[in-house]
Write a structure and sequence with these properties.
The complex is a heterodimer of chains A (300) and B (436). Chain A has 300 residues and is α/β, with parallel strands linked by helices. Chain A folds into two domains: 8-187 and 288-297, Rossmann fold (3-Layer(aba) Sandwich); 191-284, no CATH class. Chain A has helices at residues 8-26, 38-51, 70-83, 92-98, 113-124, 189-199, 262-271, 276-280, 290-297; strands at 30-33, 60-64, 87-91, 128-130, 147-150, 178-181, 210-217, 220-223, 237-242, 255-256. The radius of gyration of chain A is 19 Å and the shape is globular. Chain B starts with a helix and ends in a 7-residue tail after the last strand. With 436 residues, chain B is an alpha+beta fold. The chains are: A alpha/beta (300), B alpha+beta (436). Chains A and B meet through α1, α2, α6 and α7 of A and α1, α3, α4, β2 and β3 of B.
């Protein structure tokens, strides 16, 4: 006789599957936002589990900033192929060319993703969009619901959230309104890595430590490549580094690490003392309320 | 790499850790934030950049000490007004358990937030200031925790350093609290003398309380036995979604996806599908990783049945000799959560119970409960924001319910305003959990 206790990873998995099924059962046209990062990969993996042996009954959408690491795109395409899921690409470059958005002076396309995302959501009539956000990532996210209501401008109003009691989710919306759904709300970075290791999930090679040519810019290590070429006067060196998050290739820094296997990454994550965004994302450092502001505008 | 870190990594990956959810309730000055900060800090969950940021903001504001509440108060309005608006979720893990903390603010919207946080909690942590003893707020929090059926209550008698770690003070608070709690149904009540600020009995046993023979808080939370809290007797499987692959290889597959609400299901079990009332046998319990020998809460599985029965979302699978009540007249406790309008007799709402939506009309308000005194006002004509009351609902179609105190999964529902689509109430089927 078993103890009838689920391990924490299996509890989190069950909760996420429940959320994903609930959305598909109640919403008209869901979509899964897929960035190619580890969280959206875990979310896609869970979506596949939720409907097995059937295929995932909704498309996935990649808001393509045009600043992707090639290995991330390769990994995305492997997942699409393996699961037979429909891929929608919303191109930021295309939106810049059409004049919908303007390139920001610092080269970040993080903020200008939002209008592109909102336009695509409206064009395809999506009334629910899954995002890989976790509550442990950031203070504004810690207070966001699993089913997060957005008005017809895609905006989040933190003071006007629907109470979320038990696992009784309320996805009711009027025409034009939508919900963002965060099935990984209760996962931590450590849970994500433990799960990736336990399930041996296919992720971009960038997450694993390798000898890479890097340049040190104010304490942040950037890999030298087409997106972050060496500037004049800079010198590069070979170091064993890996990426903790995968954002725009021109802004995401690597960290020094010897973790070249999934198990080693779990151990490193258990020991690490700096948040993943604090360590590697230039775009989140803007202000204390940076994330909240972007979410109010319709960002994830 | 330390041994603890390797242990943690190994435990998490191998699946030997389980999950414990706890809710904390308290006001700004009872040391709740400090306690959470202490748990996170001593379990090495606060990251250096988070601490740096909190320290620099505290300094900017001219605080003498690092304000750990800044770790959880994330919204602009909260920082500007120095208040906590909403339930914040925090996480930490030890090699034994992963913990999810629902941190609920004590002042504004306290009932709504506490109900939200407690609805999924295994444990409620109630903070009592050793200098003040059991106050109205302690009673209110305890009442709400028992109303929501939280199986374990841990009373942290905090600020023991300010009463010279006095055993008499602690014992007197324990007596007062126990006497009050005897009017409620509290299955498991524990008292721990702590100082969140000094760290006494939070993670490590304190030398200042040699008279205290129990565990420090963290070990207590690590060891708390919660497996038997779940209802493993009454099989309830609300059908969430029907899986029918549109592919050649599995064309004949028809599975009922859902989360086990209670009970243990096994292939070969006789079951009944409601509302159809037809009996059949469980053919197989499937997951993406293959079939399983048994399914229990909160597993998300897909059940295949031996006979073809017309079953859809909102239906319920149970055992033929153990079924929930099928009711259109619901007697329930509700907590009202909407600030724009109160609940009144004759109003209609959408109701969501398990995976089933219906419409409901308020037939009667039996009474409103004063959450501070537990007094019942039987002349009440409305239930306003943050108030609790007992009501009668008439529902457009039968719901398959159990009393909440026996089965929270099938005894809970929400009411939704049909024009604004807002969730306006949390409902619990059946009477109050106390005899008074």
């Amino acid at each position: 006789m078993t103890s009838h206790v689920l391990s924490q990873l299996r509890s989190l998995e069950a909760e996420s599957i429940h959320i994903i099924r609930e959305v598909v059962a109640e919403m008209q046209r869901p979509v899964l936002l897929f960035s190619g990062g580890k969280d959206s990969i875990v979310m896609l993996h869970l979506a596949a589990k939720a409907f097995a042996p059937a295929r995932i009954p909704f498309p996935i959408m990649h808001v393509d900033t045009g600043l992707n690491f090639q290995t991330v795109l390769d990994c995305r395409d492997r997942w699409v192929e393996r699961l037979g899921v429909q891929l929608v690409v919303a191109s930021v470059q295309d939106a810049i060319d059409r004049g919908l958005v303007k390139e920001e002076p610092n080269g970040s396309r993080n903020r200008i993703q939002t209008p592109v995302l909102l336009e695509a959501v409206e064009k395809h009539g999506f009334d629910a969009a899954f995002g890989g956000g976790r509550r442990d990532e950031e203070k504004a996210r810690a207070k966001e619901r699993v089913f997060s209501f957005r008005d017809d401008f895609g905006q989040w109003d933190p003071k006007n959230q629907r109470p979320e009691i038990w696992s009784l989710y309320n996805g009711r919306v009027h025409q034009g309104e939508s919900i963002r759904v965060f099935p990984l709300s209760n996962w931590t970075e450590l849970d994500i890595w433990s799960y990736i290791a336990a399930e041996d999930i296919d992720i971009p090679d960038l997450y694993l430590a390798r000898e890479r040519e890097v340049v040190d810019r104010g304490g942040m290590l950037f890999a030298v490549n087409e997106f972050t070429p060496l500037k004049e006067g800079e010198t590069s060196e070979r170091r064993s580094v890996r990426y903790r998050t995968v954002g725009d290739a021109n802004l995401t820094a690597a960290v020094e690490s010897d973790a070249s296997t999934l198990t080693a990454i779990v151990e490193e994550t258990a020991a690490v003392r700096i948040t993943e965004r604090g360590a590697t994302r230039g775009d989140d450092k803007v202000s204390e309320a940076a994330m909240e502001d972007r979410k109010r505008e319709g960002y994830f | 790499m330390s041994t603890t870190t390797e242990n943690l990594a190994e435990a998490l990956t191998s699946g030997s850790t389980d999950l414990l959810r706890f809710a904390t309730a308290g006001s700004v000055d009872d040391g709740k934030s400090t306690l959470i900060g202490r748990l996170l800090f001593d379990s090495k969950t606060i990251f250096e950049d988070q601490l740096d940021s909190v320290e620099s903001v505290s300094k900017d504001r001219g605080n003498d000490y690092t304000d750990l509440s800044l770790l959880t108060d994330g919204l602009r309005a909260e920082r500007e007004q120095g208040i906590t608006i909403d339930v914040a979720y925090r996480y930490f893990a030890t090699p034994k358990r992963k913990f999810i903390i629902a941190d609920t603010p004590g002042h504004t919207q306290y009932t709504r937030n506490m109900v939200t946080g407690a609805s999924t909690a295994d444990v409620a942590l109630i903070l009592v200031d050793a200098r003040k003893g059991v106050i109205e707020q302690s009673r209110r929090h305890t009442f709400l925790a028992t109303l929501l059926g939280v199986p374990h209550i841990v009373v942290c008698v905090n600020k023991m350093d300010l009463v010279d770690y006095s055993e008499e003070v602690f014992e007197s608070i324990r007596r007062d609290f126990t006497e009050f709690a005897s009017r409620l149904r509290v299955p498991d009540l524990t008292f721990i003398p702590i100082s969140a600020l000094e760290g006494d009995n939070v993670v490590n046993r304190s030398e200042n309380t040699p008279w205290y023979e129990g565990s420090p808080l963290l070990s207590h939370l690590e060891r708390l036995h919660v497996a038997s809290d779940r209802n493993l007797v009454d099989v309830r499987f609300p059908v969430q979604y029907v899986i029918r692959p549109q592919s050649h290889e599995s064309r004949d597959y028809r599975g009922y996806a859902g989360t086990v609400a209670s009970g243990v299901m096994k292939p070969g079990d006789r079951v009944i599908a409601l509302p159809a009332g037809l009996e059949t046998t469980i053919e197989s319990i499937d997951t993406a990783d293959g079939p399983v020998e048994e399914a229990y809460p909160p597993m998300a599985v897909t059940v295949r049945l031996a006979d073809e029965i017309d079953i859809s979302r909102g239906d319920m699978i149970a055992r033929p000799n153990n079924t929930p009540a099928s009711l259109q007249n619901i007697d329930a406790q509700i907590c009202w959560m909407d600030e724009s309008a109160p609940l009144t007799v004759g109003k209609k709402y959408a109701i969501k119970h398990t995976t089933r939506w219906a419409r409901a009309m308020v037939k009667n308000i039996n009474y409103r409960v004063d959450v501070n005194t537990l007094h019942r006002d039987e002349d009440a004509t409305e239930i306003k924001l943050n108030e609790i009351g007992r009501i009668q609902l008439r529902v457009t179609q039968p719901l398959f319910v159990d009393p909440y105190q026996q089965n929270p999964e099938t005894g809970s529902f929400i009411l939704v305003d049909e024009s604004t689509n807002k969730t306006v109430a949390a409902g619990m089927v059946g009477g109050l959990p106390h005899s008074a």
